[in-house]
Design a protein that fits this description.
12 helices; alpha+beta; two-stranded antiparallel ribbon; single chain; 7-stranded mixed β-sheet; 380 residues
């Protein structure tokens, strides 16, 4: 059912001057006082608690409006560290925390292939499920994986494994694994390889499963300038309510290709018909590795660009988006550099867009390092 858009008309800001277009690094920051804390002091996450992610998600609920977003994006430069590429590096760091905590995880092994990593504390919670998990020790596995976790050999088929893991996740419940949505992710050692079983999407980080998704930049070109359609997530979303997001994005569930998923998500999230969405161009990937308490996120996002008709207006169909705005690309870049308004992994995909469309140039200090760090995770 289509939602009524809070503002679904074209919001094309023509008041920005050529200095915005010639450089995304020369604009200042005047922040409304009510937003100063949420902008620059995002909710601290307790990395030692298994349920820390729930705090991070709920603490990100929107306290800003589109007016706030555009005011910050258009404000003049005061020489702060939000200029240059610093703000982009910060957003990449936000998606790649906790590398020093990897020693607290043990491999999750299937048929001599590592499919994930489980925190030792979370593994202790799984040990009571003796008909599902076994825990070979280093001297029992010829030292190849060291201490690790695997599934009981009695679980021989994909369906048996999927059902058994589903029962475990259900027993652990929302208190341990918040955001359960009954959406299954395929579990494999790398993209395109054999699928060993499927796992509830919300549980994937707790088992360190590599998760894949599709993110699409929907843009419009007018008079030689590019504008991005940006979504603001519904306040009713259980994850990252009210935050800024791509026009179209979604996890890659079991049994569907990336291209098919883009077309599906285009229809559901923005009302884009297949006659248009099939023109979306795959342009590469970004990846990250983030450890937060018991959660080990190893995500790979397939990036797409779609040039939309100038008169197109998105209309959400699934209730997950509250409103959309069409914003000049240089201002979108300022939003990323200066705020924490975007859902964190969206920042990486848009930064990649800025590289590919010439908004970040080799003359910008840190160009190559920033480009490399967009793929900080394992792209396999």
């Amino acid at each position: 059912m289509a939602m009524a858009m809070a503002c679904n008309h074209h919001y094309c800001y023509r008041i920005f001057s050529h200095k915005f277009l010639s450089s995304i690094c020369n604009s200042p920051l005047v922040v409304p006082k009510r937003l100063q804390y949420s902008l620059f002091h995002p909710s601290t996450r307790n990395s030692t608690q298994h349920n820390s992610s729930a705090t991070a998600v709920s603490a990100s609920s929107s306290s800003f409006t589109w007016e706030d977003v555009l005011q910050i994006a258009q404000s003049q430069d005061n020489g702060s560290s939000s200029s240059g590429l610093h703000g982009f590096f910060e957003k990449i760091d936000t998606c790649n925390r906790g590398s020093n905590m990897q020693r607290e995880f043990i491999p999750f092994v299937m048929e001599d292939q590592v499919v994930g990593y489980v925190h030792k504390g979370f593994a202790d919670l799984l040990r009571k499920n003796r008909e599902v998990f076994i825990f070979p020790e280093n001297n029992m596995s010829n030292g190849r994986f060291g201490d690790h976790i695997t599934l009981h050999p009695a679980l021989k088929t994909l369906d048996d494994r999927t059902r058994a893991l589903g029962d475990v996740v259900k027993c652990l419940g929302e208190e341990l694994i918040p955001g359960i949505r009954n959406e299954l992710y395929p579990v494999t050692s790398s993209f395109g390889n054999e699928v060993f079983f499927s796992l509830e999407r919300a549980a994937a980080p707790y088992f360190g499963i590599k998760a894949y998704g599709v993110h699409m930049n929907g843009y419009v070109e007018r008079e030689g300038q590019k504008y991005l359609w940006i979504g603001k997530r519904s306040e009713a979303k259980p994850t990252y309510p009210g935050m800024l997001d791509h026009l179209v994005a979604g996890g890659l569930p079991h049994g569907i290709s990336c291209g098919e998923n883009v077309v599906k998500e285009c229809e559901e999230e923005a009302g884009i018909p297949s006659s248009i969405s099939t023109e979306a161009i795959p342009v590469g990937v970004v990846s990250y590795m983030d450890i937060d308490g018991y959660r080990y996120k190893r995500d790979v996002l397939f990036c797409y660009d779609l040039k939309l008709p100038q008169d197109f207006t998105p209309k959400n169909q699934d209730g997950e988006v509250g409103s959309f705005k069409l914003i000049p690309v240089p201002l979108v870049a300022n939003i990323i550099r200066r705020t924490h308004f975007f859902k964190s992994n969206c920042n990486l995909v848009i930064i990649d867009f800025l590289f590919r469309h010439g908004y970040i140039r080799p003359e910008d200090f840190g160009y190559l390092e920033l480009l490399q760090r967009l793929r900080s995770g394992d792209c396999s």
